[in-house]
Amino acid sequence: GTPPHHAGAGRAGFSSSLGVLAATLGSAVGLGNIWKFPSLTGANGGAGFLLVYLLSTLLIGLPLMVAEIAIGRQARANPISALRQLAPRGAPWWLVGLGGMAAAFLILSFYSEVVAWVFAYVAKALAGSLLSADPAQTQASFDALVTDPVQSLLWQWVVLAFIGSILLLGVTKGIEAVTKKLMPLLFLLLLLLCGYSLTLPGAGLALSFLFAPEWHKITPAVVLTAMGLAFFKLSIGMGTMMTYGSYFTPGQNIPATATRVMLADLSVSLLAGMAIFPAVFSFGFAPSAGPSLVFITIPAVFAQIPGGQVLLAAFFILIAIAATGAMLSIMEVPVVILHERWGLARPRATLLTLLILMLLGTGCALSQSLLAHIRPGGRTLFDWADYLSSNLLMPMGGIAIALFVGWAWGEQAFAAQLSNQGQLHNRALARALSLLLRWVTPVLIGLVMLAGLGVFGS
Ligand code: PHE
């Protein structure tokens, strides 16, 4: 049949299949691969964690990613309008879009702070003031940075302004053009670092750590962490993939694209692990160093390697590149909502989002200095933002989106998106995914959340 006419027909979007892929992969790849994945894998026992993460990605992540993109492309609108438009008469599914916008603000407020440290470290690495083979020393310089309110805040503002200025260029000339340049560079840098790291003597130990499971370390809380990572990694459950779906070209094959992005993203995580762990093991450090792995252990390790200063700068530039595409996609959610629903011109919507983030972000930026005394439940504001987004908001968004596609939207419309208006015959796939989203995904996410939060006792 003829494709439906959309109110947003003249709306900006990605211009080519390659652009769609670069932007979507750009969103998936980020701190999740280089800062979270290795440290969580290290802290939770290596290969067993990896396996649970893989299962979450396949059973929960991928179907939800397909679902979100399909919703976005059908509606060609921001998440709030999209859910409003596709929902059966009057049902308040748009609240899920609103929740996504809140999650976007929450995620960016801590994410931009980690990238702030990354930017600061790029500057320091280039100036040569970072290297010391003594971990106590690298710990001290990291502490000096994060407990300094002025540096923490200013670097965060630099990061936010940088991302905001790309978004001011728009979806096609900003997001698409920039990620198209950055993604190849990212793979190049990563392969170089990884190739180098695998020649180090600790490579064997590192690989067996990554690929030989320690089952006793898998607790319900660890399973929740792994599932949270799957959500965070694939940018799902908070409107980003829905927003990007609304920019997809009509002919783009959604399931194939989602699968490619998932596989490429996984490769980046594994390559990051293979770049980081051999170095860590070669110099006798523990892999369980947690989030400090990147900022404390790695500088101490690279100090012992010839050419370490260049490698270290390259490493932090790599993280900055990876994080850029991700931040663009998180920030795009409130920008397009403010633009389309509140009727602000796009530049104004971008500036307003920037302003809100500069204010909200202070909570995380100052969480180890001026606001360090605020620690409800033993977590800093930064830790809460991180914990709540991955382990609560994104899974809840995921449940809602699964229920929406499984029960409210209708399989016909879903199948039409998966089959590109009849070009491909994906009916069986649509059927299977619908059943999965209807019966399995919400229950699975719910159970993992409840178990992980300790509801069934531990
Ligand atoms: N996927 C990104 C990463 O791994 C983070 C992200 C979360 C991006 C949510 C968009 C939305 O770093």
From TrEMBL:
Pfam families referenced in this protein's UniProt entry, alphabetically? SNF
Q: Where are the transmembrane segments?
A: 13-35, 47-71, 91-108, 115-133, 153-172, 184-212, 218-236, 257-277, 310-331, 351-371, 392-410, 436-456
InterPro entries annotated for this entry? Na/ntran_symport (IPR000175), SNS_sf (IPR037272), YocR/YhdH-like (IPR047218)
Subcellular location field: Membrane
**Key words of the record:** Membrane, Transmembrane, Transmembrane helix, Transport
Specify where it is mainly localized.
membrane
Isomerase listed as a keyword: no
State whether keyword Coiled coil applies: no
Tell me the membrane topology, using the record's own terms. Multi-pass membrane protein
Report the PANTHER family cross-referenced here.
Answer: TRANSPORTER
The protein's name in its UniProt record:
Sodium-dependent transporter
Q: Which organism is it from?
A: Diaphorobacter limosus
Please name the taxonomic classification of the source: Bacteria, Pseudomonadati, Pseudomonadota, Betaproteobacteria, Burkholderiales
